């Protein structure tokens, strides 16, 4: 900078069998914060030329930690290679395919910005609107200064080991000369890919145990899901129970019936799951004295009537979301709890969505919408701009159903306690902090893999 240069280019094109590439995000953030400390950041742009950038989240992270421009050369080269090798069934030329990719990335970035109520790249660049998972404090303080990281994790040595392991997979000697990329399996389960809690084994055990009404098989399912000592999937898999405590008398333990009253299903809308699944959940919860949740898709009025055998398909918790799908005075009065959906843990900042081909006549009728037309709830922050707006909605719902308690659904994040304090002052009866678990088949898979945190990770 002192010599008059105005652009810094960070490139990993020079990597070879003897040189591994530093992760681009770490390189960008390190340079960005060094320039800030030296007082030069406003005088220079940072251009990234990296091969480890191909998804929208990768671009968003680089921009959020200071990049000015990004050249995903390997992604663009891959598009060209696939087109020339005939692996794409399209008549479009290479240049058009690259333009389509760049357009898709830009539209994806705009969607990411909008989740935080940001409308311009300038407002997002360098804002560090991220929470870091699994990197220790020493690395965060030096290379990602100011970012939030609430648990420890990898240090520089471990990051170097991961980098060298990936480098060896590309350049190391192999028993077979075939050059193949790893399977991946982040978005979809693959036999040799990333481990998923819901995999063919767990799904089979769950479905078979319920179909055969066999509790012993269900215990096998529970064991496979809960025992994560070998393959840690969740944060709780890193924790264990203390075994040195004296047991309390069984008489002091609550009965199963009283514990059931605090059980509730996740909020899954009619439309994202079938009527049969939705109503079966409601019947099951009502039988044990627990609560089912309608989700934001409304509820057919026929479910408010008791079935001939005395069962009820009525959901005790009625959700009110930004689009107000299916919300009527009759809907509100047939609830024990009214839940305001301020956020969704599986995709914070987005509203619920249902593709048009799923909106049949029945779903359209229940949601008071047009069949065949896709339904997307506006982002919650476009519905409730301030704590005063939330207080007004809580007040209105209390007047719509004096007997129901009012709950507000928030999302797990750093500082959610401060937000919850404001919600409590707005006279909410219950505050639910939802984690990233959940999301139905109607929800896109990409946001769920890069957003949200466990519900237990709130502070």
List keywords for this structure.
globular; 8% strand; alpha/beta; 16 helices; single chain; 459 residues; three-stranded parallel beta sheet
What does this structure look like?
- α3 (73-84) crosses α4 (94-115).
- The chain is built from 16 helices and 9 strands.
- It is globular, with a radius of gyration of 25 Å.
- 37% of the residues lie in helices and 8% in strands.
- By secondary structure, it is α/β, with parallel strands linked by helices.
- A 4-stranded parallel beta sheet has the order 4-5-8-9. It has a 3-stranded parallel beta sheet with strand order 1-2-3, with helices on one face. A two-stranded antiparallel ribbon has the order 6-7.
- The mean pLDDT is 89.
What's the SSE pattern?
Answer: EHEHEHHHHHHHHHEHEEHEHEHEH
Number of strands: 9
What is the approximate shape?
globular
**What helical percentage do the residues reach?**
25-40%
Structural class: alpha/beta
Beta-strand share of residues: 5-15%
What is the distance, rounded to the nearest whole angstrom, between the alpha carbons of the first and last residues?
41 Å
Let me know the average pLDDT. Answer: 89
Largest sheet: 4 strands, parallel
State Rg.
25 Å
Helix count from the secondary structure assignment:
16
Sheet with most strands: strand arrangement: 4-5-8-9
Q: What is this structure's SSE topology?
A:
Blueprint: E1 7-11, H1 24-38, E2 45-49, H2 56-64, E3 69-71, H3 73-84, H4 94-115, H5 121-124, H6 137-143, H7 156-171, H8 200-212, H9 215-226, H10 256-260, H11 275-288, E4 317-320, H12 329-333, E5 337-341, E6 353-354, H13 361-367, E7 375-376, H14 387-400, E8 405-411, H15 416-425, E9 430-434, H16 445-450
Parallel strand pairs: 1-2, 2-3, 4-5, 5-8, 8-9
Antiparallel strand pairs: 6-7
């Amino acid at each position: 900078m002192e010599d008059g240069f105005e652009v810094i280019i960070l490139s990993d094109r020079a990597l070879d069998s003897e040189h591994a590439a530093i992760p681009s995000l770490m390189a960008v953030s390190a340079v960005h914060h060094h320039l800030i400390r030296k007082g030069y950041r406003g005088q220079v742009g940072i251009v990234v030329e990296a091969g480890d950038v191909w998804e929208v989240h990768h671009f968003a992270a680089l921009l959020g930690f200071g990049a000015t421009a990004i050249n995903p050369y390997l992604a663009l080269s891959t598009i060209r290679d696939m087109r020339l090798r005939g692996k794409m069934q399209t008549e479009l030329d290479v240049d058009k395919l690259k333009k389509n990719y760049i357009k898709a990335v830009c539209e994806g970035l705009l969607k990411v910005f909008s989740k935080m109520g940001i409308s311009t790249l300038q407002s997002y660049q360098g804002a560090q609107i991220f929470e870091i998972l699994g990197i220790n404090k020493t690395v965060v303080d030096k290379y990602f200064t100011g970012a939030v990281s609430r648990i420890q994790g990898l240090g520089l040595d471990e990051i170097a080991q991961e980098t060298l392991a990936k480098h060896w997979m590309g350049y190391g000697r192999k028993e077979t000369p075939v050059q193949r990329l790893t399977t991946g399996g982040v978005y979809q389960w693959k036999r040799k890919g990333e481990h998923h809690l819901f995999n063919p084994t767990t799904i089979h055990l769950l479905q078979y145990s319920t179909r055969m009404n066999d509790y012993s098989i269900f215990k096998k399912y529970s064991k496979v899901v809960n025992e994560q000592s070998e393959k840690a999937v969740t944060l709780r898999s890193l924790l264990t129970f203390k075994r040195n405590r004296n047991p309390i008398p069984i008489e002091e333990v609550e009965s199963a019936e009283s514990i059931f009253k605090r059980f509730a299903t996740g909020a899954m809308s009619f439309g994202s799951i079938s009527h049969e699944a939705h109503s079966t959940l409601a019947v099951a919860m009502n039988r044990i004295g627990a609560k089912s949740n309608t989700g934001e898709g409304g509820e057919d009025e026929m479910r408010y009537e008791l079935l001939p055998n005395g069962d009820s398909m009525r959901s005790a918790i009625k959700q009110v979301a930004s689009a107000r799908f299916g919300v009527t005075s009759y809907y509100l009065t047939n609830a024990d709890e009214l839940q305001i959906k301020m956020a969704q843990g599986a995709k914070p900042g987005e509203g619920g969505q249902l593709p048009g081909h799923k909106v049949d006549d029945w779903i359209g009728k229940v949601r008071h919408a047009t069949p065949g037309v896709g339904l997307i709830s506006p982002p919650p922050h476009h519905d409730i701009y301030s704590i005063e707006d939330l207080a007004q909605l809580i007040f209105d719902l209390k007047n719509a159903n004096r007997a129901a308690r009012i709950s507000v659904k928030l999302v797990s994040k750093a500082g959610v306690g401060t937000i919850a304090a404001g919600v409590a002052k707005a006279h909410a009866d219950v505050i639910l902090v939802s984690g990233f678990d959940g999301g139905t088949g109607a929800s896109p898979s990409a946001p769920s893999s890069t957003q949200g945190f466990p519900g237990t990770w709130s502070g």
